[in-house]
Write a structure and sequence with these properties.
Layout: E1 2-7, E2 12-19, E3 22-30, E4 36-42, E5 45-53, E6 59-65, E7 68-75, H1 98-103, E8 127-128, E9 133-135, E10 140-142, E11 148-151, H2 154-163, E12 165-166
Antiparallel strand pairs: 1-2, 2-3, 3-4, 4-5, 5-6, 6-7, 8-9, 8-12, 9-10, 10-11
Length: 181
């Protein structure tokens, strides 16, 4: 029996097979977080082969048993497969972005600033911290749609200021008229 059911209390949605009133067979389960599971289910749980699709475009393909993943493979939104062993992407020896690894380096003057092409436009006075924009004055991180994510603590604030891309240009180095002591 295949039906479409809205889970009123959880904000989820399921479209697929049922057995004895429970999700069983194959189906698609939409979480309220915009994550989606497509695959096999048994007794209301992920069971068999199935894939979790995340809102950022990444996915996790796995073999499930009673709701737990036995083994699986995570792939980032840009197509980079995560390797638990022998991970060579963006390590201490090779700092290239995945798109540079696949497509080669850009010519001088067109250096790649992020793995995303083109890079996101960062609001003036903010930083791109990887999952959204950070405003150091308000110490708030918002997602890329400008929805509140979290308040940054002192450690995250320091890390973002030191490591993340800024939404403005800064001139560094020699400035005419300046002398060093």
């Amino acid at each position: 029996m295949t039906t479409n059911g809205k889970m009123e209390y959880t904000g989820s949605n399921y479209k697929g097979d049922y057995k004895n009133g429970r999700m069983e067979g194959t189906g698609t389960y939409d979480f309220p977080t915009e994550t989606r599971y497509e695959g096999e289910l048994k007794d209301g749980m992920f069971h068999g082969k199935g894939t979790l699709f995340f809102p950022n475009g990444s996915k996790y393909v796995a073999t499930w048993e009673e709701g737990s993943a036995l083994e699986g493979k995570y792939t980032f939104s840009d197509g980079l497969p995560y390797e638990e062993e022998n991970w060579e992407y963006c390590d201490g020896y090779d700092r290239r972005f995945y798109t540079e690894t696949c497509n080669g380096l850009k010519p001088a003057g067109l250096s790649q600033l992020t793995n995303r092409i083109p890079p996101r436009d960062i609001p003036e006075g903010c930083y791109d911290c990887g999952d959204g924009f950070y405003n150091p004055k308000s110490r708030v991180v918002v997602d890329y749609n400008h929805k509140f994510l979290r308040n940054a603590d002192d450690d995250e604030h320091s890390w973002i200021i030191k490591k993340c891309r800024k939404g403005w240009d800064e001139y560094v180095g020699y400035k005419k008229g300046k002398t060093s002591a």
